[in-house]
Please model this.
Amino acid sequence: MNPLRGARISGTGSDLPDKILSNAELAETLDTSDAWIRERTGIERRHVGGSTATMATNAGRRALDAAGLTGVDIDLVIVATTSAEQMMPGAAAVVHAELEIRGGAHDLNAACSGFVYGLIEADSMIVAGLDHVLVIGSDALSPWTDWTDRSTAILFGDGAGAVVMSACDEPSLLGWDIGADGTARHILFTDHNDTIKMDGREVFRKAVRAVMESAGAAMDNAGVEPEEITWLIPHQANTRIVDSICEKLGIDTDKAVMVIAETGNTSAGSVPLALHAAVDDGRIKPGDLLLLAGFGSGMSWASAVVRWQE
Ligand code: ACO
Model:
């Protein structure tokens, strides 16, 4: 293996379904309020009615366009998701056909950390010899939401984001960390033909600790200090979780890229949605140091320190 061979992000894209569900609309049928949801979660609205495979395809196509590539250039597509429309094949099979991808295709289920897992695995595949890998995070959780349960219905939405990782000789993934605690799988789960079940307080508590330790390990591996991070791109589960993580890591909350007000928690879609938003509006510039942090059901978590390249 070439020690200088690495991967950079050469294009990003995202997709949200058209249908928007506001907090006020939710409060018409649930014992809740716009003020409570905003204050306790940071969410103002979410997009619903999406299809995991369609959103993945749309986000993937936009990332390919941004990279100046087509499906024929792609050696592998990874779709991080927990909500593929069929048990088999995975959503990646649909994306593979729609985008006419030449290489391999598979899904990755690590819930809300899935995209960051995918990014790290794509980097390894490129170091091992592939040239271009399309990594997509896409989830449509609205069909799996119990719309009569105010503790979960207020949180989730549908959305997707994507990046193309391309080989280069100046690696941009400087450090990473992955982890899981399968003994905590009962605090957030969905059975076949059922809806999302969650112990919100316990998820909150474990998420803050997991991200604090994992992001710290990724920064140590990269040899960077928290004050050097230009942008934190966190999983968008709850603004208060992100504020707490920032405080514990010693990262200014202004550095956290947030899309949660518009999207709610889109599971595997959330980190790439936030990443694409900050690339698209010009916030992220060459040389910036990004800290990507995912956590979710499993429990699982993954963190990555990335130097943004032109
Ligand atoms: N509207 C109004 N009141 C509510 C609502 C609501 N939607 N939900 C709960 N309450 C009430 C509760 O009944 C409780 O009332 P009580 O004090 O009379 O008993 C009170 O508000 C406080 O309840 P808590 O559960 O303590 O509220 P908390 O501040 O913890 O917020 C929340 C709940 C938003 C769910 C929070 O715990 C959270 O965000 N947890 C993390 C969830 C998460 O991140 N999940 C996804 C992980 S990623 C993945 O893998 C998909």
Summary: The first helix runs from residue 23 to 27. Residues 32, 36, 40-41, 111-112, 150-151, 154-155, 188, 198, 200-201, 203-204, 207, 237-238, 265, 267, 296-297 surround acetyl coenzyme *A (CB under 6 Å).
